[in-house]
Structure formats: structure tokens, C-alpha cells
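STRUCTURE:
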């Protein structure tokens, strides 16, 4: 019988990365490992009576816009495909120096450029160092296990 599995020597960081890269939060081998990450995301906008704190399970690879919708937070949006720029938000990483690297997709990079929300410096930092820019498209941004402050004006493309 041919074995239908592969063995990996995984560190905790490997497991975290694997879970973040996939839609599954369970790795099944001789052991079953369930990994659910919690992030704390604070939403703030002049159109909200007060800031809202949300703690999504982020192993599901939800986009920020989906999390906002689930929690009745009215980030403007139209295309939900990175093209219109309506859902632009400003992100502050609350974990200090430990900002996670992120590879902007071409779609998000172009979307941000088209609405003038990706500075040359931010674009360079994103492509060279995988550092996330200050502005993101909520429909494209996948929430990881980082704590974030998300600010938006309530006007389409207005962050
Ligand atoms: S909704 Fe159009 S770019 Fe996000």
C-alpha cells in the first residue's frame, strides 16, 4: 500500500503560517491540531456612535470587509474585488514593532494606486520589505492574528 501522507518537521511558527495560508484551521495527521487565532480589531469612524471592538477568529482567512459586515460596521464598498477603491481604510498596527509582513496582491496595489492611497515610499516598502502600507482595501485585506485599529470616514474611498 502506498502511503498517502508526508511527514514534516514543523515548528510552532510553521504551523501558524500554514494555518494562516489556508482555509483550514485543522491539520490532521496522527494528531489532530486545531488552531484558531484571535485578533482584536477596533473599528473607528465619524459615522459610528462609538468605536467597536471585534475579535474575529482569523484562521478562516476572512477579508476585513467581511468581518465588518458581520458586525454591522458600515465600511463603504461597491465592487468587493479591489477595483473601485470604495472600501479603503487606514490601518494602525497595535502590536508595536511586530508588524507582520504582507505581500500586497497586484490587484490591491493597483487599486490603492488608482485612488492615490499608495505613496511611492509605501509601495517600495511593500514590495521590498513586505511591509503593509497605511491604507488598505478592506475587501482585499486578510486579517491575521495582529491587533489592529481600522479607521474610515464613511465616504466611499475616503479613508
Ligand atoms: S469594494 Fe471595491 S475595492 Fe473594495
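SEQUENCE:
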Amino acid at each position: 500500500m502506498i502511503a498517502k501522507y508526508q511527514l514534516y518537521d514543523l515548528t510552532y511558527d510553521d504551523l501558524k503560517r500554514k494555518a494562516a495560508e489556508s482555509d483550514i484551521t485543522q491539520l490532521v495527521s496522527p494528531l489532530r491540531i486545531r488552531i484558531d487565532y484571535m485578533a482584536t480589531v477596533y473599528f473607528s469612524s465619524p459615522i459610528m456612535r462609538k468605536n467597536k471592538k471585534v475579535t474575529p477568529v482569523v484562521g478562516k482567512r476572512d477579508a476585513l470587509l467581511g468581518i465588518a459586515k458581520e458586525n454591522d460596521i458600515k465600511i463603504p464598498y461597491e465592487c468587493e474585488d479591489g477595483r473601485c477603491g470604495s472600501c479603503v481604510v487606514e490601518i494602525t498596527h497595535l502590536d508595536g514593532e511586530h508588524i507582520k509582513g504582507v505581500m500586497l496582491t497586484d490587484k490591491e496595489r493597483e487599486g490603492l494606486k488608482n485612488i492615490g492611497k499608495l505613496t511611492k515610499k509605501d509601495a517600495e516598502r511593500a514590495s521590498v520589505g513586505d511591509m503593509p502600507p497605511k491604507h488598505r482595501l478592506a475587501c482585499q485585506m486578510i486579517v491575521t492574528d495582529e491587533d489592529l485599529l481600522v479607521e474610515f470616514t464613511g465616504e466611499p474611498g475616503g479613508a
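REMARK: The CA atoms of residues 33 and 126 lie 32 Å apart.
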